[in-house]
Amino acid sequence: MNFLPLWRYQNQLIDGAIVTLELTVISAVCGLLIGVAGAVALNGHITPLRWLVRGYIELFRNTPSLIQLFIVFFVLPNFGLKLPAFEAASVALSLYFGAYSVEIIRAGLDSIPRNQVEAGQCLGLSGWQVFRHIVLPPALRNAYPAVTSQFVLLLLGTSLASQVATDELFHVAGFIESRTYRSFEVYAVICVVYFAMAMSFKALFAIIGAAAFRWPRRR
Amino acid sequence: MALVEIRDVHKTFGKVEVLKGVSLDVEEGEIVTIIGRSGSGKSTLLRCINALESVDSGEIRVEGERVHAKMPDLKKFRQRVGIVFQAFNLFPHLKVERNITLAPLLTGRTEKAKARALAEDVLTRVGLADKIDAWPEQLSGGQQQRVAIARCLAMAPHLMLFDEVTSALDPELVGEVLKVMEAMAKQGMTMILVTHEMGFARNVADRIVFMHQGRVWEQGPPAKLFANPETPELASFIASAK
Predict the structure, then answer these.
(1) Chain A residues touching B76 at Cβ < 8 A
(2) Average pLDDT, chain A
(3) Which of A67, A147, A156 is nearest to A100 (CA)?
(4) pLDDT of A191-211, one tens digit each?
(5) Residues of A in Cβ contact (< 8 Å) with B77
(6) For residue B23, which of B177, B217, B239 has the smallest C-alpha distance?
(7) How many CB pairs under 8 A join A and B?
(8) Distance (Å, rounded) from C-alpha B60 to C-alpha B46?
(9) What is the pTM of this model?
(10) Do B138 and A213 make contact, defined as CB atoms within 8 angstroms?
(11) I want to staple B173 with a disulfide (CB 3.0 to 4.6 A). Which of A55, A70, A112, B142 is the partner?
C-alpha cells in the first residue's frame, strides 16, 4: 500500500470534490423545487397534470439513474437538445431527485390536518397564503428527515456522472488510477472524502433544522 | 333586516340529509345558542354560515349578502365572520403574536409597526397579554382556545361563530373560556354558538335554538325554553343534558 504517488494529484481531487458538491447542490435545489411543484400538482384538481406527475415519478423511480443520465446526454441531442456533461448530469440528477422529493413532500403536505387549512381560510386568507404560511412550514418540518437522507443518496449518486465524463470526484479517481495504477489507494481516498462530505452535510442539516424549525413538537 | 338570515336551507352529505329546511334569523347584537343532540345538524349549519360548507338549496344571507362557497369576495366576507373551533386550530409553528397578526398583516388590515400592539390589545381582552411570546404548545387547552378567540377578534369581525369551543377542554378549563365569551357578549358582539354548556346557554344567550333531525325544532328565550319545553324531544334532551 502506498499513498505517496497520489500526493501530486491533490489539486485534481479537490477540484473533483468541488464539482461533486456543485452537482449535488444544484440537483438538490432544482429537485426540491420540482418536489414542491409536483406535490402541489398531485394534490391539485387538474387530472391530466396529476397523471403527468404520477407518470414522471414512476418512470424515474423505477428505472436505473445511469440510463436516465445516458438518455439526457446521448439521446436528447438527437432532438436538438445538446448539453455539456456537467449540465446533462445536473438535469438528470435533478429529475431523479425531484421524483423522490415529490413523494416525500407530498407526504409532508398530507400530514398537515385539514383543520389548519380551514382555520386559515376562515381568517380570510387566500389559497396561496394558506399554503405558504400555514401548510408549508410544518409540512417541510415533517418532510425534512426524509429529504436529508435522500440528499445523502444524491451526493453519493453523483458518482454516476463520471460515466459521461463529468470531472467530479469519481471521474477524477478513475483518471488518477489510470496514471498511477494505485486502484485501492485512490478509491480508499475518495471513499473517505465522500464519507466526510456526507457526514458534514448531516451535521449541517441538523444545525439548519434546529434553526429553521424551532417550534415545539406536539406533545 | 336581520344580520343573519337563513331561509329553508337543505344540506346533504352523501345519502344523509343533515339539514332539512332550516330557517333562522339572528339580529345584530344577539346571542343565539344552538343546542341539540349530535347529528342534529348544529355544526353543519354553523359551517354553512361562513361558507365552509355550501348549501344544496335555500339561502343564507349575512348583512344582506348571499353566502356561498363561490361568492366573489369570499375572503373579505370571512374577515367579517370569525369562527372558533372545537380543536382551537392554532398554527403550531407560529408564536402567539404571529398567530394573531398573520391574517391582519396578510390581508392588509394592519401594518407591521402596529401589529404587536394589536396582538397585545386582543390578548388583553382574553386575559393572556403575558403569553404573547409563547408557542401554542406551551399553553393549556383553555389558553389556546382563548388565543384562538383573540385571533378572531383581531380581525374585528361583525359576527362570531363558536363551534363547541369548550368540548375538547378539561372541565376545570371550561370556565375561563366561557368567561371570555360572556365578556364579548356584554360588549355587544353578535354571536352564534353551538354548545353543550347548558348553564352558559341559559345565562348568556338571548335565544336558544333547539335543533332536532336537521330542523329547528323549537326556539325561544332560555328561561321559557328550559322551564316549559313545548315538544317532548326538547323535554327529553333537557332531561338528558342535566
Answers:
(1) 124
(2) 94
(3) A147
(4) 999 999 999 999 999 999 999
(5) 124
(6) B217
(7) 68
(8) 11
(9) 0.86
(10) no
(11) B142
